[in-house]
Amino acid sequence: MQAHIYIISLTDAGWSSLVARRAHNPKVVGSNPAPATKFLAPLWGFLLCVKFNTALLFMTLNTQQKIETLVIPILDRMGYKLWGCQCEFKQKQGLVRIFIDKPEGILLSDCEQVSHAVSAAIDVEDCIPFQYRLEISSPGLPKPLFYPWQYHENNGAVVKVKLIRALEGKRWLKGVIRVVNNDDFSLEQEGNVVQIAWTNISKAFIDNE
User: Fold this and answer.
1) Could you give the CA distance from residue 122 to residue 145 in angstroms, rounded to a whole number?
2) Are 125 and 148 contacting, i.e. CB atoms less than 8 angstroms apart?
3) Between vectors from CA 127 to CA 125 and to CA 61, what angle results, nearest 5°?
4) Which residue numbers in the chain have pLDDT < 50?
5) Residue 163: which of 139, 190, 187 has the closest Cα?
6) How many CB atoms lie within 10 A of CB 197?
7) Which of 37, 103, 129, 146 lies 20 to 30 A from 30 at CA?
8) Rounded distance, CA 32 to CA 164, Å?
9) 131-137 and 158-167 as β-strands: parallel, antiparallel, unpaired?
């Protein structure tokens, strides 16, 4: 089963009012270092890159939390459940991907209705200060897992998990969800049980094979 995706393009859908409120970040202006300070060039470049990436990561996580808090009650009133939220920001452009679900499944018309409600709410709250693209989608198959409560609901299911930091030399793990805790969950692999922290999960999905 393929996921139904509905995409709003700011220029095509008429949400151009958001474009006018793009962030105007100051540009870093400087000159090339003198020959005697060649060593400092890659050092400053590295420090600047780390600072930029850290700030971008913080903004991404902060914005994602704001959108989740904003969207959950809207979806509840409309009869949907927030299944997941992803935000990707590069310079002054962004992508917001929202996954929705309901017991009877998601149709394209559901994505259209949710897109109008969510985009209007994001516009009013001004969660994103620059141009972005909004995608509304069903989870699709294989079904991804984003939140601990989804592991509770699928306790006993087989899942594939990609880790941020490898465990015993492995980045991809496959096993059965067992005990779900506040900070981690246990994954059973052929009789062996490993603990996986929520903060160490890059992505995960239910394995239907």
Assistant:
1) 24
2) no
3) 145
4) 1-2, 8-56, 58
5) 187
6) 14
7) 129
8) 36
9) unpaired
CA separation for the pair 107, 4 (Å, rounded): 7
Residue recorded with tokens 């400092």: 40
Strand 158-167, strand 201-206: pairing: antiparallel
The single residue listed with the structure tokens 């600072």 is 51
Distance CA 209, CA 206 (A): 9
Q: Per this entry, what is the length of the chain?
A: 209
Tokens, residue 175: 């096993």
Q: So what's the pLDDT on residue 3?
A: 56
Query: Which residues lie below 8 Å from residue 117, measured CB to CB, with a gap of 6+?
Result: 74, 78
> pLDDT (tens digit, 9 = 90+) per residue, 63-77?
889 999 999 999 999
Q: In whole angstroms, what is the distance from residue 41 CA to residue 16 CA?
A: 40
Question: What is the pLDDT, as a whole number, of residue 47?
Answer: 38
The answer to whether 151 touches 141, Cβ cutoff 8 Å, is no
Residue 33's H or E segment, with its range, is none
Residue in this structure with the two tokens 């009013």, named with its chain if needed: 124
38, 142, 144, 55: which is closest to 91 by C-alpha? 55
Q: Which two tokens stand for residue 4?
A: 């139904």
Q: Which domains does the chain have, with CATH numbers?
A: 5-24+33-137 (3.30.300.70), 148-206 (2.30.30.100)
Cα(118)–Cα(59) distance, integer angstroms: 20
